[in-house]
Amino acid sequence: MQFFFEVLIGGLLSGVLYSLVALGFVLIYKASGVFNFAQGAMVFFAALTFVGFQEVLPGWLGLEPGSAVVFWLAFVLALASMVVLGLLTERVVLRPLVNQPHITLFMATIGLTFLVEGIAQGIWGANVRGLDLGIVDEPIEWLMDRSGILVSKFDLFAAAAAGVLVTSLALFFQYTRIGRALRAVADDHQAALSIGIPLQHIWGIVWGVAGFVALVAGMIWGARNGVQFALTFTALKALPVLILGGFTSVPGAIVGGLIIGASEKLAEVYIGPMVGGGIESWFPYMLALAFLLVRPEGLFGERHIDRV
Amino acid sequence: MSAVMTAEAPVAEGRRIGEVILDLQGISLSFGGVKALTNISFNVREHEIRSIIGPNGAGKSSMLNVINGVYHPQEGQIHFHGSRRQKMDPHQAAAQGIARTFQNIALFKGMSVLDNIMTGRSLKMKCGLLRHALYWGPAQREEIAHRRKVEEIIDFLEIQSIRKTPVGRLPYGLQKRVELGRALAAEPSMLLLDEPMAGMNVEEKQDMCRFILDVNDQFGTTIVLIEHDMGVVMDISDRVVVLDYGKKIGDGTPDEVKNNPDVIAAYLGASH
Amino acid sequence: MLYREAGQFKTSYSADQQIFPILQDRYGYWVILAIFGVLVPMLASAYWLKAILIPVLIFSLAAIGLNILTGYAGQLSLGSAAFMAVGAFGAYNFRLRIDGLPFLVALILGGLAAAAVGVLFGLPSLRIKGFYLAVATLAAQFFIVWVLVKFPWFSNNASSGVITAQDVVILGYHFDGPQAKYVLTLAVVAALALAAKNLVRTATGRSWMAVRDMDVAAEVIGIRPMRAKLLAFAVSSFYCGVAGALYAYTYLGTVEPEGFNLDLSFRILFMIIIGGVGSIMGSFLGSAFIVLLPILLDNVVPAIFGNALGAGFASNLQLIVFGGLIIFFLIVEPHGLARLWQIGKEKLRLWPFPH
Amino acid sequence: MAEPLKAVEPELDTFPRLLLQHARVRPQRPAMREKEYGIWQTLTWADVAAEVRAIACGLATLGFKRGDRLAIIGDNRPRLYCTVAACQCLGGIPVMLYQDAVAEEMAYVLQDAEVKFAVVEDQEQVDKMLEVKDQSATLEHVIYDDPRGLRHYTQAFLLGLAELQEMGRIHDRNQADFLDGEIAKGSSDDISVMLYTSGTTGKPKGVCQTHRAFIAAARGGIQFDRLTEAEDILSYLPMAWVGDHLFSFAQAMVAGFTINCPESGETVMTDLREIGPTYYFAPPRVFENLLTQVMIRMEDASRIKRAIFHKYLDVARRCGADILDGKPVGLGDRIQYWLGNLLVFGPLKNVLGLSRIRVAYTAGAAIGPDLFRFYRSLGVNLKQLYGQTETCAYVCLQPDGQIKLDSVGVPAPAVDVKLAENGEILVRGPMLLKAYYRRPDATAESINAEGYFMTGDAGFFDEDGHLKIIDRAKDVGKLVDGSMFAPNYIENKLKFFQYIKEAVCFGNGREGVTAFINIDLEAVGNWAERRGMAYAGYTDLASQSAVYELMRECVGQVNEDLATDPKMRGSQVQRFLVLHKELDADDGELTRTRKVRRNFIAEKYAVLIEALYAGRASQRIETQVKYEDGRTGVVAADLRIEDARTVGLDPLKQAA
Description:
heterotetramer; C: 355 residues; mainly alpha; two-stranded antiparallel ribbon; 4 strands; 72% helix; 2% strand; D: 656 residues; alpha/beta; eight-stranded mixed β-sheet; five-stranded mixed β-sheet; 21 helices; 28 strands; globular
């Protein structure tokens, strides 16, 4: 039983990371109807840019490697890069494709995936790098002593970060003018126009926010597994998360991420050995597929009626 | 009440309006609590032109969607050719000889006029995948036989000069005509037309009117028509049913409907 | 300019419905076929045949498969490589386990195996569309590769699933040289491309396009969308499967499941985007483009920049160029090279008029 | 004198016999094609013979007798052509009607020709027949080809052509030798067809032509241009027009070539391109529209393409016509022309559907020399012919290699052409009409005692024996010195300039020729804009001195041209003015078909004519005009009068 909980909690915590990536998808999908396949690549780009700046800044500015200044400066620069990347994407890729079929936009973001990955590695190189957030990946003693369950401090931190992020996003959407405009856009583009904020500004902001979310996700993930190309594949796991949670639901992204994270770990541990292991690679997709057949609109998605 | 009316329905020379072939009883339809149609009953006789009119949002298109199986009403019964119709899909309705056009043109944008109309003959084509892949032989013979039929429709609708044009490039009025052609290609016994003349100029409307009358006359096709142009409706319909807010408020010959106080109220109310 | 169409009138529907109704196109087609069928195998070097022409043909076939599904039936798939894998391992196992099974029969059986698997993974398409379906096909991609790796039965107990294709023998003739393999590949691909063209110009193809363009209208005129979609999945997977089998038998000889990864699926998708969605010829153009571009980059980049940029740069540049091209084509010419070809042809037909 | 016609085989002296011959000799060759249901449905000669047989027997079943008149009304359709032949088989007379005529016009012809049967195309024509049925006492049966929309027409005299043919087939089975007997009864002197002259003056007259006449005309043309059974012709001009009857019926029947009927009026250009006829006929306006379209479409082409296009058009202008005529051309030009053919002319002709043409004719109106030269320079063997309904559209033809832009060629084989005292063209030959139907007076008026038909056209032969048409004979007058004055001839020459829209010349009984000119507002407007000139409307533009200069140049060129011809040199335009308003049909100055009403204009603007001859430099004029909305207004202007550049002529005397 203890083992089960350990696996469950570990899974839930890695699910938090899926949630963070999925969150970026949801934001963009809500605002512009674009299914941004490149969100995973953007996470990779963000993490690589952050690490890259951490490496080069001390040399450029004569700072102490590993200092807080370097950390925050790299964070700000990486964030700025993400915003620029987001704005450029919006301007160069999506705006010319406005009013095109969704499938075309989707394929364009696949192209974007390649482009972003290529650029990131072209600038920073393709080596695997470590990323240190200063949090030690060791079990929380208090919890281990009381219940015997191993929970990593790092995972807890990641969960907390995700929680903060989601809460602040929720507040942002709920209480700011731009947030309200964003929600209006998701419902009806015409209505959004009447609020008085140009659609393009809104999309710009959304891509900026999505960049920020990608950066946070990338840093946490990078700190855990190292910054490397494989990150983009792991990020693909966000897709089944979306199917579970629905494309338009922020809570859906969170819950979906947790379900996927937990179930893939449990499946790996309990079913894996029966079939030779490694089922993590496909289990989330099959789960999502099975789920689709039952409830195509996702857990929190809105049911759609085709009017003829 | 409707029996009295049909007795007086105009009978065109040579065209005999026959028995009731479609009977709708107490049809109600709602979408997640929103009532689109409430307890609607009416019937359609063989060979007649039956119009459905009413203000916007009266439920006219929903009515057509019920008839050809796109929507499944929660309540009510549909009898088609005497037998009770179970819940069925549009393609089953098509197999029973019901074809239709749509309010917003629903052509296959990536295909030519010819191919669009050819799809209308899908139900009549029997060759399978392998024969299609081999082409030469049965598949080619079938294609040619149906092409010949489709060409007759193209000739009938006078769209020879655009037969190989992709439909996306055509002006609106011609697209409507092509859509009618696609419906006709199925050689339907009943044709549902959803605002076939919307957005057309006078000349195009005249043409479309002529085609509808010719179809009804030459092929004996029963026609259920939704149309906003009252002049056209009153001119070509045998009987008219009037809907408002999903309820039936009038049913009868054009003259009767014109003098029905409820209908007048609905239309005056709608126009203000 | 080259066309002389006056006087080419059609007195029968069979003449009017030819694949190439214009005489000059027919000539062009036979000339191209003669060049690639006769001249190329006589003149091309082994490198060109083995490393370029054979893979171009094989990927063309896979691209035709994906194009049937995506371009004609409108169902996006990210799992083409997995279906190729099924074809490759299917053909291998059929030959392994059935004594004396003729190669071509094994090829078809491999394709049919892929078709069966394709239908299975196409089932969700009955309820879902667009991105949802794309994600569903990812499941196929990962699951199939995993199965082939994890169950050694499929690779005759070879380590990590690597298989070595048996000799290709048809009617006693051994296809072992690059020439022979090229000619065989060309023959299979040409025949299947013709069949695909036939499918898309008859009722089957029209039902796919109808479902793609307006599924409600398609259903209303009596097409069953479910049937049309599953058929598209089956045919598409069949083509990918045969391509996969050729990939093993006439191209690489030795393949492993991991070779049929997501990246390959993406590459096939890129072929149809760049070549032309909804065009058989576009599949060939796209395949040639995607196969040749990296070779071109490998040769051109060092020539311009020298070796200073390092080996990693070339692969990154390839990513950037592919990604950029995809976006460029989707924005500027969503119907790809095939459309450009067609525009050029229209220009020639109307020359000297612009339109 | 024209070359003789080769002898006719005696058994092939009527159209029905020709048809039977083709069905025997070339049964599987295509005789007629029609674009219908998306493809060119083909009837072989055997098919045509069978169709004709069924129609003829059907007609006989309905009681059609020798000599009965049968009206044919509709677009060019194979079955209507077959009906013509079927009617001829029975010794009847097909009466061809223009399908776009209104019911009353048809009523007149139906009465005049005492038509008993009418075979019409479709519902539209049936409706017209129903409208005039009561006025046409002799009309007994109306037979229609296309049954669409006619299901509820219950009139007993209506019958579908298909049903008629079915009746005919039964009749044929029962009396297999009936039709052959009827055909055997036919004689080459029987009337083969009645064509109505358009009748610009008075009521239309029915021109009766015999088999002999039309076969002679057809054979002459075939011999002249060496036509074979392999020709393809597009039949799109009205069947009631003599040209179509000659080209699409008579010549096809004689030579055994294929006629091709377009799908519909809208698709003629596409169908032309598909068929790519080898033998083609079109009135000048068709060629003109085609050229205009070419130029407009080329406007949108890229700069490079336009440059190539114009460069090679220049090459063609320089040597194209000579190459076509087989004249010696330098090697450099030949190479350039060959390149041009590869890059421009070949594709251009092909896109237009003209690339297979061996012989093309134009007639019916004067064709501008630039227009004519354009097509010839591209290598299209476009030629002019001259003829009337009364001569089976066959008098003069331009021989290959001897094309003169302003002549209509030499007398056709077996045709005897001479000029009357007043310059009127007289023709005699086997192709002359037998008579005007029931109009002995008119027949006597137009055929003189020696058997010459008086064409009413004035013309003269040049030194090579080519006939030049100058005017209607009645319009031709004389100057005071007795030399010929042909206003139309001069006006046409002026109007060939794109800047001149209308011109009216005066001079009959005067010392010299003067002219009113209407500028073409669009062309001159463009010209002015290119030169940066400002103008406010027609009147202002017409009065500008630069425009006068332009007109002077045009008139001067016409004069130079006229001066080369000894018969015309006296007719050079000495003085001219540019009118302050456009001549308008609403003001009675033009007919509805846009021909100038010379006498009306002379009366209305008498003061201007007086000023022209009085030698004044300007004249004030006020004119009432009708605006499009029906209001009237007054346009007033001081019109300048200019002397034109002339060659070797004394200026007009300044005396009044």
